[in-house]
Write a structure and sequence with these properties.
Length: 202
């Protein structure tokens, strides 16, 4: 089957994209509502796009009524957030935190998710996440109806249970122990089903 994108409605193209670009990493983003409450939502149009400076990109769409999603609004207004990499046991909470709640109503309180301080960063991190990145807003770019948000990593937190350091001082993160949740199409998620090592040919 060969498909010419203009022949599909945006909705059908969206469904094709999310079923075929798989699995996608998930950024579980904690942001600041500005009223002492915290917002939490998952985004899978997400990836690391630069290491120097360390930058992620997240593509945020619009609410059904055309307004800004709370995460986009919080990032543009307050310019900081914490990106978590959720693991398998967090799948239900990840899905639940994608509910459109009224602005200011916290998904953390609703799901009973605990947070702990993230060093001297103004926002906390999720206590049970194995990887968390304290980020500041680098820049934004509009693309179609999406807002591309570039986030610069200011601090990284890794659970000691998934991390080791070799004799050259290089940090190793055990992907099997991290067991990150991946996003597939529809309501489906993937998790780590094993890995293979393919030595570089050069
Ligand atoms: C696993 C998963 C991945 C998602 N990825 C995205 C995404 O990349 N971009 C987006 O705009 N919405 C995405 N959503 C939907 C948002 O999470 C949802 O619109 C949420 O209500 C936004 O919350 P907020 O208004 O508090 O920011 C995703 C939902 C799920 C469950």
């Amino acid at each position: 089957m060969q498909i010419h994108p203009p022949s599909l409605s945006p909705n059908r193209m969206y469904h094709l994209m999310i079923q075929s670009v798989v699995p996608r990493p998930i950024a579980w983003i904690l942001s600041d509502n500005g009223d002492d409450s915290l917002n939490l939502a998952p985004f899978s149009y997400f990836n690391a796009v630069c290491s120097d400076p360390p930058v992620f990109m997240v593509s945020i769409g619009r609410k059904a009524d055309g307004g800004d999603k709370d995460t986009a609004r919080n990032l543009v207004e307050r310019k900081h957030c914490v990106v978590h990499i959720p693991h398998r046991e967090m799948a239900v909470d990840v899905s639940e935190t994608s509910r459109p709640l009224p602005f200011g109503e916290s998904e953390l309180a609703r799901q009973g998710l605990a947070t702990v301080p993230f060093g001297d960063f103004p926002l906390p991190r999720l206590q049970d996440a194995r990887v968390a990145f304290a980020c500041t807003l680098h820049s934004t770019q509009e693309l179609g109806k999406q807002l591309l948000v570039f986030l610069q990593v200011q601090s990284v937190w890794l659970d000691d249970a998934i991390t080791s350091t070799d004799d050259k001082g290089r940090i190793h993160v055990d992907a099997q122990a991290l067991d990150p949740l991946g996003r597939l199409g529809g309501d489906d998620y993937s998790f780590s089903g094993g890995s293979i090592t393919v030595p570089r040919p050069w």
